[in-house]
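Researcher: Please translate sequence to structure tokens.
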Amino acid sequence: MIASLALSGCAERQLEDEADDRERACMLMAGGRVYWEDGQSRVIVDASGRSATACLCLTEEEFETQSRHDELNERLYERCEALAATFEADSNDCLEHYEAGTWLPGVWWARDELSWMGEDSPPCDAEALEGCHVSEPTPASACLFLALFALLRTRRRQTRHGDDSS
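Model: Translation complete:
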């Protein structure tokens, strides 16, 4: 049922957005650092040595209204944590930047001199609308589905037995 709701929302969004032109917009991670107990620190960068980015395919309206900036901020936080882990440092300031909204003003279109941003992101074509891609099931997703199903079934049984004892 949850999957069908998600898929119907996706189909609805695809129909609504089909005529919309989407373009890659990226949030730039400025200021993320890792720290070691001996006092050393280092700026977090991606594999190319540049500031990390998180990107979404946005319409002009979404970009101007900043309606999906929080989603970009969350993605950049996840990216910051993943990159920070590669340094094997004692701590980082990713959470502080995320919670403070430090990165929120830093969203640009990934074009012209900024076309390097999001090079590893999927293209923004009609078949790759962000948030609507349904991939082939993997063994991990099948296990997750079965675990969720078992949890819901157990919860339902507990609820029924709880109602009988009242």
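Researcher: Any highlights?
Model: The radius of gyration is 20 Å.
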